[in-house]
Structures are given as C-alpha cells and as structure tokens.
Amino acid sequence: MARGRAPGYDSQRETILARAAELFAMRGYAGTSMNEVAEACGLSKPALYHYFKDKYALLVNIAEGHVLRLEAVVDEVLDQQLPAQEHLGQLIRCFVEEYADAQHAHRVLTEDIRFLNDDDRERILERERRVVSAFSKVIRQIRPEIDDARMATPLTMLLFGMINWMFTWLKPDGELTYEAMATVVADLFFGGIPAVRLPIQPIQP
Fold first, then answer.
1. Within a domain: residue 19?
2. What pLDDT was estimated at residue 192?
3. 3-state secondary structure of 46
4. pLDDT digit string, tens, across residues 72-107
5. CATH of the domain at 95
6. What pTM was estimated for this model as a whole?
7. Cβ(24)–Cβ(59) under 8 Å?
8. Which of 43, 50, 145, 187 is the most exposed place for a label (fewest CB within 10 A)?
C-alpha cells in the first residue's frame, strides 16, 4: 500500500515554492543553491528533496504555477459575463491584486524562463499567450476598428507593461495601494484607447 502524504504536505510545498521564488527573484535562478532554499525554509536538504527532486523542478513549478493562477483569474472574470469595458476593468483589477501577492513568482517567470528546456518553456509560453489573447479579445470588443489595423495585441502588451512592472517601484507598505493603482491603470487605459491613432496602412501579419 502506498504511503499517504503527511498532514500539511501541500502547505509546506507552497511555502517552499514561495521561499524559492523569493530567492530566485533576488539572486537569480543560477545564483541560488538548493542549500540556500532549504535554509530559507528551515528544512534539511534531504527534507527539501522530499518535496522537489531538484532546483529545476522548483523553477518549473514557480513559473507554471504563476501562469496557471493568471489563467484562473481570466476564467473567473469571463464567467461573470460582464460588458466589454467592465470585463477589461475587472481583469485589470484582478491582475494587479494577483501580482501584489506574486511579485517574486512574476519576476522568476519573466527573467528565468530562459533556463527552462524547450518543451517546458513552450508549454508555459502557450499559457501566457492564452492570457494575452483574453485581454486582446476584450480590447477588440471595446474598439472593433483596431482589428483591421492589427493593433489589438500591441495595445494589450502596452497595458501589460503598466501592470507587469508595477512591482518594481510600488512599495507594498507605501501610501499607494495596489487597489488604488489598479483604478489608475484602468483610467489611463480607458482614457487613452479612444485617442489612439491607428496606422493608415494595416500592419502586416
């Protein structure tokens, strides 16, 4: 009979991923050892290997876990069946709030994905593309004519530029909260998208 998992296994596993993400974000994946991860978690190295077979497994779980959570946010908002502008506004708010608690994992995803093998990297990038596509689809609904100019994806990436890098300058304990900044991002985008001048000639695919 297979031995069951000890109580608290999943909780300890999530703690390890959080500590590893923090170390990878600060020192880089290549600059962090399993000894350092174990020490940060208050575990022995053999105990750490009980949860993850190697440092690479930590990287895959951190990067893919982050994207999976973003996909879940997209699905939760989609299920609300909101009008297009409300839909995008809710996506913006939910993503900013998600990033508030996932700053380290997001940095790992953006900076250390190059260390993944081809199959793992492509699988995770495909999930990222689904997230971007969900935003792009709503933006096209808000301003349909951008479809002909092939500007939906560039506008989506500009929006992500505001959201993705907020963690590099916004202090969690500062006067500005993530909730307040989510409203600012939405206001900037909704105020700016009507003013975007589309290229006279469609952008070639």
1. no
2. 85
3. helix
4. 999 999 999 999 999 999 999 999 988 888 889 999
5. 1.10.357.10
6. 0.84
7. yes
8. 145
